[in-house]
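Troubleshooting: if your tokenizer reports a length mismatch, compare your output against this known-good record of 639 residues.
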Amino acid sequence: MTVSDVRKRFLEFYKARGHSIIPSAPIVPGNDPTTLFTSSGMQPLVPYLLGKDHPEGTRIVNSQMSFRAGDIEEVGDNRHTTFFEMLGNWSLGDYFKKEQVPWVFEFLTSKEEGLGLDPEKLYVTVFGGDTDANMPEDTEAVELWKGLYAAKGITAEFANIGSEEEGYERGMHGNERIFAYGAKKNWWSRAGVPSNMPAGEPGGPDSEVFYDFGLPHDEKWGAHCHPNCDCGRFVEIGNSVFMQFIKNEDGSFSNLPKQNVDFGGGLERLTFATIGVPDAFLIDVFDAAREVLETRTSIKYGAEEGSTKSFRIILDHMRAAAFMLAEGVTPSNTEAGYVLRRLIRRALREADRLNIQEPVLAEVAQGYGKAYADHYPHVLEKAQVIHDELAKEEDQFRKTLKNGLKEFEKLTAKGTIEPEDAFTLFTTYGFPVEMTEELANERELELDLTAVMKLMEQHQETSRAGGAQRFAGGLADHAEQTVRYHTTHHILLAALQKVLGDEVKQRGSNITSERLRIDFSAPAKMTDEQKAEVERIVNDVIYQDLPVTRTVMPKTEAEQLGAQMEFGVKYPDMVSVYSVGPIHATEENPDIPNAFSLEFCGGPHVTNTKEIHEGDRKFKIQKEEAVASGVRRIKAVLV
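Known-good structure output:
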């Protein structure tokens, strides 16, 4: 199967079981200053898993674009990637284990509706209990899995292994197919194991599914193989989290009033399981990019052990770079732009290892636009931007690399490399610290990374402080014009909902003194007539000279008033709400007109919309475009 086949089958499978398909959130969450990237399917949905009502109901399903910067060093094996898609289905206080476990098994094994995987090759893990928290083994999940295997004529015996270390020592025996591990492996909470959870924190057991590729066990990982072994024989393809408990003040646990299910399945891993090949880089979305590298090197992928890791790093990093660039990230020395620059430079180092001397990264990345055109058309729409940015960055860094390598040789001629040397290579020659580290490992030179990072932290302190301010609330600064745009942004969201429907929700924002940008959920491109109507409404509102008021109120009251909130943000019990126009009518004041816009927000804002049109300014949409599947972006100005 192709990636598109697997994604489509998953979404349709759960749609047929009452789930609403929701779009992927962007991989760069512009409205969340606490994180640079969306790193899981759960991340944008945490408020709903914690009790907030989702606008699409209690059963939802999607495929979420994700990026994990922490996995950069892991890329090079057969399964780790920095960018990936996470297939997810959620029950928000609706169904639970007895529905979820059979559905997962059916989707994986059904030839008609699912992936048609051989059930003989599926192994599962469950929660084996936690004595520290007096939490019992998840016997319900064990019995459900036994029954499903039995229906397929498979004897599935159970073993409580306990820990990963015990698994390597014990191995597997006979018909064992269901394995219980401790809380470190099969328990989910934001705080980790049950004993670490604070009072009021939700959590619960999970059940993971592994595909057995039948590869010989590599004893460098341990004496015996087991499902959680890292030797490559078993690959995790899915995990159902059962958010079942809440921790009490006395340390005991009670059942949550509304119990949730959160399933995450790696799209790439599920796809390479369907073709029976234990290599993520042999699935179809990498075909065009892989062919570029094979043509440039005259090496068939996988034919030479030394080149395979370099192929994988380039293929992964350029896919991630293509998606970042398509969302408006550009290479820089701060925040998401720094991660993008690091990906590009690591890929270029690997191109050098493959002896590719001419520019190649832009050509590699071009293959991903067509590969994802059906579900993420914005990547193909941004093909020229992606090409130009990568070509420019590659050209610049080849010069940096050449000069930096020369200086590195000079500095290390004495047989050592000092922290100050690494710092100088970065600040003077633009040579990345991680590249200096890689070269020093290769040449068996000791480098005190702690000392280097102290120097780097001192150097970047001002930048980090500025970055925190820049991303707070999506505002670049608190300049007068930026504040005008911020209030206009609120009015624009309300206008979009009036024209396109209440299902429009904000998915990100970025506001500077030059323009405003909003990402919002929408099923289709806006027509010229719709854009004109939005412009008319916004201008009509700002020229009414309406008061803009901040009110602090309980979150529950704000929700009852219909206040809009940023997607994926968890709010405290008391919230700040800004209204454009007098706030919503109440029983005590029934004659007060409804506010045009009402949003959870920390500010700052103008005090009256007349400040927006001061100087006879008018609101004008500059551009409306796709940014992800089901997510559109508007850039607008006051002129």
